[in-house]
Amino acid sequence: MTTPSTIFQSDTKESTVDFDHRRWMQGALRGYENTRSGTEATFGDFEAARKTAAAIKWDGIEHLDRHLAQFADNLERRGGKVHWAGNGKEAVEIILGLCREKEAKKIIKSKCMTTEEIHLNPALEQEGLEVVESDLGEFIVQLRAEEPFHFVFPAMHLKRDRISSVFQEKLGTEPSDDPEELTMIAREVMRRKYCEADIGISGANFAVADTGMISITENEGNARLTTSLPKVHIALMGIEKMVPKLEDLSVMLQMLGTAGTGQWLTAYNSMIGGPRQPGEVDGPEEFHVVLLDNHRTALLADPEQRDALRCIRCGACLNVCPIFKNIGGHSYGTTYQGPIGSVITPHLRGLQSWKHLSYSSSLCGACTATCPVKIDLHHHLMRNRRDSVVEKGGKQERWMFRQFSNLMSNPRLYRRSEGLMRVGAWLWKPLKGTKLDPLKAWTETRDLPSPARKSFHKQWKARAKEPTR
Amino acid sequence: MTTARDTILGRIREALSRPSHPGVRSLAGDGIRDVREARHVLPPGGETEEERLGNFTRLAEKLKVEVHLATGQLEVGHLLKKLKEEGNWDRIASHRSVITESQVPSLKLPVIWTDDEPGTEALEVCHVGITRCEALIAQTGSVLVTSKGCGGRALSVLPPHHIVLARRDQLLPDMLAGYDLLRDTYGDKLPSFISFITGASRTGDIERILVLGAHGPKRLTVIISD
Predict the structure, then answer these.
(1) Which of A57, A447, B23, B93 could join B126 in a cystine, given CB atoms 3.0 to 4.6 angstroms apart?
(2) What total number of domains does chain B contain?
(3) Considering CB atoms only, which of A153, A287, A291 is closest to B205?
(4) Is the CB of B216 less than 8 angstroms away from the CB of A220?
(5) Does residue B132 contact residue B150 with C-beta atoms inside 8 Å?
(6) Do B24 and A48 touch (CB under 8 A)?
(7) Residue B69 domain-assigned?
(8) What is the pLDDT of residues B96-130, one digit of tens each?
(9) Phi (first) and psi of residue B144, to 5 degrees
């Protein structure tokens, strides 16, 4: 039977032995770590800044009902329209409804992982609409008809020759091995698209309760154009994006830049509150915000893991994760990859189908140590493991752990089994890595060291008999 | 009839009625919540005007922003003329404000004023957009612009070269001071668009190699006069 877990296993089997790709990823992410540590050093106290960022987002989450209501009221006072979507399907329906109402034909999008989460693009295309991703990385993966590899760097897995060839094939451009030339190709294509588009769709990095604004962080300027030129702007965002006050962004934007890419601030940090206001010369006539729940309230109801809703999607936990670096983003099979994806996907899509991600971790804690809003990521992976077993534990596994526990808490039994272990290892050796090997999944690509000739216990005893020096 | 809003807010209230696990709460427990109290934990803005100018220039130049200091409007005029000749401008996009109107007309080129609502196409063919700014931020090397005060949303992002005319007294220490200024200036009628512009448009989406001018301006020039 094909399940997310079996797909994950077969995908990772391939990706983990692609050493070229692993080296490439590690090189790319080392650059991030260097830049980031330089930027961290410019902070008065980066650790305290993490705590403040965590406190701000926690305030947003702890009183989420109040902040959301305030956000919606303030935005509507400024002529924006707020839509509430309980799940992905409802959000898609709301956006399709707006497209029909406006008789839209062409849509320009700026980067928005939430639209990936609800599978918006296929739904829009099925309606006969042209949908173009304007962020360069997203545009490249869209042309290649694949999922983003990393939710901040969507095309980080591709080298320039593959990008050049997809441009050649889909856009009919000349081949190039110059990143600047390739970027300019996308710029030219996109310029026309901004002007032609009927609707611009964006996401939001933050939403501000006391002013009714959304905030978008970007480097390219594509989000600014997407939200400025078309007559209608629709922003889709999860309900957890809330910060209470506009001033809170003075901390959050710098934390997002630093943790996300290592830059102290990205090129454009824009706050948008409503459509064009009286006395303004341009901007969309209509501004719609779609607030999406889609099981976020289920995560909020978890008294242990609700802090995962503080996540600002900076991607730092992916960048430092040894698992992500080795298996790559596509293997996860989720909208949100890496440690944060492994933590929240079981809540968003079902624990039993997605628990395998929580087991695919070395629990090294690099994610928790790097998170700019101090989410207890690696402990949440443990909590998911525990919850999955409590909910539906295997009898065989429970029996094995009971035996293991007996063995480890009973010295006499343990000593007696030492001899058995050596016999077992001798019997097992010819089976290693074959179909009959019960440990095949582990030993296929790894060696199991044979037990030492003289156990620690025996060595210790022998040593105790020696005269002390 | 319950609305979708009531349903979702109801779900949130129900979820929050379960108290947080004490262990989770402690993760955020000892942070300074008030951003005004937390100023010192962020990168410094500078105590004196000299320090602020130094920080602004250093950070902006790291991002390849061209920062010019000018003594008096006459020198600003000279700088703009030089840029005009180097860039072979044939028309200029700008907006009406004291500082822009004192400079732009004397360049003797056709001007597209965004106040006249010229439309996207007319703006798109301009090589340069000249705007004022709300403030310069020393902490981050950013230019703070708004739709109300700086000629709309498109002017500072559509033309390939963005030139900002600023005054030295517009230098603020940090982003928080920037937000305070906007509240003072606009009260509860904040502009529909506010942006901290930090360097020119850029991307690293191809092999993490920095390329300037992804979708927005390839060049950002800031001229600071006394």
Answers:
(1) B93
(2) 1
(3) A153
(4) yes
(5) yes
(6) no
(7) yes
(8) 999 999 999 999 999 999 999 999 999 999 999 99
(9) -95, 120
Whether B8 maps to a domain, the answer reads: no
Q: Which of B100, B183, B205, B211 to probe by mutation at the A interface, max A CB count within 10 Å?
A: B205
Q: Which residues pair with B197 in a beta bridge?
A: A268, B143
Domain enclosing residue B156, as ranges: 46-225
Q: How far apart are the CA of B100 and the nearest CA of chain A, in angstroms? A: 16
Longest dimension (CA), chain A: 94
Give contacts of B32 with chain A, Cβ < 8 Å.
48, 51-52, 55
Beta-bridge mates of residue B135: B144
Residue B147, chain A, CB below 8 Å: the answer is yes
Interface of B with A in 180-209 (CB under 8 A): 180, 183, 189-209
B9 to chain A: closest CA residue: A65
- Taking the C-alpha atoms of residue A225 and residue A244, their distance in angstroms, rounded to an integer, is 27
Structure confidence by residue, pLDDT tens digits, B62-81: 999 999 999 999 999 999 99
**In this structure, is residue A3 part of a structural domain?**
no
Rounded to whole angstroms, how far apart are CA atoms A432 and A446? 10
Q: What is the ipTM of this complex?
A: 0.97
Tell me which of A325, A358, A384 is where a domain ends. A384
Which of B19, B114, B176 comes nearest A281 by C-beta?
A: B114
CA A222/CA A96 separation, integer angstroms: 22
Q: Facing residues of A236 across strands?
A: A290
Contact in structure between A243 and A206 (CB atoms under 8 Å)? yes
Do B205 and A155 make contact, defined as CB atoms within 8 angstroms?
Answer: yes
Q: How many residues are given for chain B?
A: 226
